[in-house]
Design brief:
heterodimer; A: 99 residues; mainly alpha; Helix Hairpins; 3 helices; 77% helix; elongated; B: 183 residues; Four Helix Bundle (Hemerythrin (Met), subunit A); 8 helices; globular; disordered C terminus
């Protein structure tokens, strides 16, 4: 398979993730859609790494996975904190930074 | 054979991604994301990224998704209002998604990179193996490696601070008995 197929697939997955962020209102699902976008980026990085025959892109993809894990941990911590304080779990109602 | 494997992985990844944004129950969305991640790991294997594929299964589909499942079960079903904060949002979003996909595809396919229309150069045995990735991490990308370990530590501490039960929350929840106990 040509590398360009992987890149087009990654563009499609990224677009789907972006659409999820635009449409859904629940913070948990928005985090899931961010995961979709990060994984689409990873697929593109690995495809480029394959096209160049160089492993640097794979190291980059691993670092992206680390950053995604950190984002998930902090985001889920925020969701749990919102739930404990009985705040509405809806990103449109959470407009203020004031706790 | 390779074409069949690619399309099987692509259909799994696309179906999982669409299910994540289409299912109403967040719990099912998390399970759909597991399907997506496993299919994507298969595609990573076809790109000769064996270590990344294994890490994808172990770290993502294993650890991170367990975290999601626990939080989805803890928070419970989140009701999303039918009301749209921006009029026409649900109609406008698919149009923007289509535009984004067209733009990205044009950007990828319009490049003059000749290597994109090939399967990539033949690579030596061990390309993408844990040994090679580990060597890169400990030699060329040592600073990146240390920085990401610091980032993980900071994120873990931050999550404990954010989600941990505070003393004043406890006091308001259990009343005076807790204060007396603390004193």
């Amino acid at each position: 398979m040509d590398v360009s197929w992987y890149l087009v697939l990654s563009a499609l997955l990224f677009a789907i993730g972006a659409g999820g962020v635009l449409i859904r209102r629940s913070p948990l699902v928005i985090l899931l859609c961010l995961e979709l976008m990060l994984n689409a980026g990873n697929l593109a990085l690995l495809a480029f790494s394959r096209a160049n025959g160089n492993e640097d892109g794979q190291v980059f993809a691993l670092v992206v996975m680390v950053v995604a894990a950190c984002e998930v941990v902090v985001g889920l911590g925020l969701i749990v904190a919102m739930f404990r304080r009985r705040l509405p779990l809806n990103v449109d109602d959470m407009r203020e930074l004031r706790g | 054979m390779e074409v069949i494997a690619f399309f099987a992985g692509a259909i799994g990844a696309l179906g999982g991604a669409i299910a994540v944004i289409a299912l109403r129950n967040p719990f099912y969305s998390v399970l759909a994301l597991v399907v997506h991640l496993v299919s994507l790991a298969g595609l990573f294997l076809m790109l000769h990224a064996e270590f990344i594929a294994a890490a994808q299964i172990v770290v993502y589909a294993g650890a991170v998704m367990v975290l999601y499942v626990f939080v989805a079960a803890y928070v419970g079903g989140i009701e999303e209002p039918i009301w749209e904060p921006i009029p026409g949002q649900r109609l406008l979003a698919p149009l923007l998604v289509g535009a984004l996909f067209a733009e990205l595809s044009i950007a990828v396919l319009g490049t003059a990179l000749s290597s994109l229309d090939t399967e990539g150069p033949t690579v030596q045995i061990g390309f993408g193996s844990p040994g090679q990735i580990g060597r890169l991490f400990l030699e060329r990308f040592l600073v990146v490696f240390e920085a990401s370990s610091m980032l993980l530590l900071v994120a873990a501490v931050g999550a404990i601070v954010l989600a941990g039960r505070r003393r004043d929350d406890d006091a308001s929840a259990t009343g005076r008995g807790h204060e007396a106990e603390a004193a």
